[in-house]
Design goal:
Chain lengths: ~250, ~300
């Protein structure tokens, strides 16, 4: 089975979120980049598990600059066979999806996996966009994925519950928590990653459907009002009269 | 301006639908499109929130992403809508990106407000640690609205309900079963949320959390460690790698308040933190704090809520 996994870089989850250039750009000063957790822990690891059980190849693809290659090597160290970097600044989800779809179209994959969203844009857009561009079915927010011949059997988050679905390959799936367990790359994997193929390809021309014009951070909370643990009536009264939430 | 609002009516018409129609009404003349087994009376109620027309394809049950994409695209075409609004739920995450590609319409996902004067729309980014302003460059746009971002307004209008042939084609994704938690309030939509963490010491102690949630009419949530070790289901995990919520009230017991957890909840209007450790970082993000043992404080708070509910 030929599997393609979309990988994005994300700021480490402990990063301080600040903006620069008149709040128009993310301040990368001191920020450590990681593979977006949903892409790595769920999509990539599940792809590797499938390869281990039924055979095949796992290709990772990212849209980004040369500086992102450290993040790509990390994904290779975990076990992907080869990597593709589309050499461009990913302007928005549509731009990213169009690049991945274009590559997938000319290389023919049975299964395309993405994380359910990135932890910086939280858009949940790229997977569905790739699917539409390739006219493939899309299953979003999958928590379980098994392959039976040419049929995918999945469980997905659905309106507070779980839905079981099946679909014939090829398909696009976005992966959520529960699908696989995080893997820590070992020394052998890290060494092997250095020599795995990393192909750089040019971007295709795509119109900008959206752009971010600026960012703000939430206003700081005023100091906390402490309530005596033996006086919960007071807390209830404050929630009712002052905060007006009950 | 003609605005199309997609409503998922698989489990009835609720608050999310009213919020989405209210939002659409502020942008223009609202037509709703929906599908599945839903009665006309429930659909007509959308008129009270500003819909002038409801198009329903009742033949389309358990529709997949490609069918819904065609249904909505065809409805948008029929009413000449340049703006399509979703509630940012699991269905929107499945369908809105497809529709964006099909219609070449810029997608604003996770919108938390109406467009600003310059036309940009505010969204949650960095898992709730910041907001971004999104400009749509295309003529058509799709807005996926986070639940609890706008107050539904009953303006007392009325809507006509019309059968609509969605020409949605065949499903490629086959639904085998749907498990819906009975009687529970879905966490992303909940206005009141009671959440707990490792401070509860074990899954067997969750009764005091559920008691408080029940007394309040709240949903329950948890921190990442608690869901990772399997004390609570994954869908309750709130935080940077779980879900981000924006309830009116978030009560957190036995959660220290790591930055990744705060990211998922700092859209909450009011935060109450209960923790034995007065130095817990969560107190800095809280409106009200109780320094005390959750095992003592939660039952007392439950009693106080019951007393309050009985006298109000």
């Amino acid at each position: 089975m030929k599997i393609l996994v979309g990988i994005s870089k994300s700021p480490d989850t402990t990063s301080k979120i600040a903006f620069t250039d008149g709040n128009s750009k993310f301040d990368e000063n001191g920020v450590q980049y990681i593979v977006n957790p949903y892409d790595e822990w769920y999509a990539l690891v599940r792809a590797l598990e499938l390869k281990e059980t039924i055979g095949g190849t796992v290709t990772i693809i990212t849209v980004g600059a040369a500086a992102d290659e450290a993040v790509i090597r990390k994904a290779l160290a975990i076990g992907a066979d080869e990597a593709v970097r589309v050499d461009a600044d990913p302007k928005d989800a549509y731009y990213t999806a169009a690049q991945i779809a274009d590559y997938a179209k000319s290389n023919g994959f049975d299964l395309i996996l993405t994380g359910k969203e990135t932890i910086q844009y939280n858009g949940s857009q790229v997977g569905g966009m790739i699917a539409e561009a390739l006219d493939m079915p899309f299953v979003s927010l999958a928590t379980k994925l098994d392959v039976d011949g040419t049929t995918l059997k999945l469980e997905k988050e659905y309106l507070g519950g779980i839905q079981s679905v099946e679909v014939t390959l090829p398909a696009v799936v976005s992966c959520a928590k529960g699908m696989a367990e995080q893997r820590i790359p070992n020394m052998r994997g890290i060494m092997a990653a250095r020599t795995k193929p990393l192909t750089v390809i040019p971007a295709v021309q795509v119109e900008d459907l959206t752009s971010f014009t600026g960012y703000t951070t939430p206003p700081a909370k005023s100091s906390v009002k402490l309530i005596d643990p033996n006086n919960m009536d007071e807390l209830v009264a404050l929630l009712h009269n002052e905060a007006k939430v009950i | 301006m003609s605005v199309l609002v997609y409503i998922n009516s698989a489990h009835g018409i609720g608050k999310n639908a009213f919020e989405t129609v209210t939002y659409g009404k502020k942008l223009g003349d609202v037509t709703v499109v929906t599908n599945g087994n839903v009665d006309d009376a429930s659909l007509a109620k959308l008129g009270e929130y500003g819909a002038s027309k409801v198009l329903v394809d009742k033949t389309l049950v358990d529709a997949d992403d490609q069918q819904l994409t065609r249904l909505i695209a065809n409805a948008a075409d029929q009413v000449g809508a340049n703006t399509i609004v979703f509630s940012h739920d699991h269905v929107a995450k499945n369908v809105a990106p497809r529709l964006s590609v099909r219609l070449k319409a810029g997608l604003v996902s996770g919108a938390i407000a109406l467009p600003d004067a310059d036309g940009t729309i505010k969204v949650n980014v960095f898992s709730g640690k910041a907001f971004g302003s999104v400009k749509v460059n295309s003529a058509k746009k799709i807005i996926s609205l986070l639940p609890n971002s706008i107050q539904p307004e009953n303006i007392g209008g009325s809507a006509t309900v019309e059968a609509f042939a969605g020409n949605a084609g065949d499903a490629k994704v086959k639904v085998l079963s749907t498990k819906q938690p009975e009687g529970e309030i879905p966490l992303p939509e909940a206005e009141l949320v009671v959440s707990a963490g490792r401070g509860l010491k074990g899954p067997e102690n969750w009764g005091i959390v559920e008691d408080l949630a029940k007394a309040l009419g709240a949903a329950t949530a948890c921190s990442r460690p608690v869901s990772d070790i399997g004390w609570r289901p994954h869908h309750e995990h709130v935080g940077q790698t779980g879900i981000a919520i924006r309830p009116n009230l978030y009560i957190a017991a036995g959660i220290s308040g790591a930055i990744q957890h705060l990211a998922g909840v700092n859209g909450s209007k009011v935060i109450v933190v209960i923790n034995t450790d007065p130095e817990a970082p969560f107190f800095k993000a809280a409106d009200y704090g109780v320094v005390g043992d959750a095992f003592e404080v939660l039952p007392k708070l439950t009693e106080a809520i019951k007393k309050f509910k009985a006298s109000n």
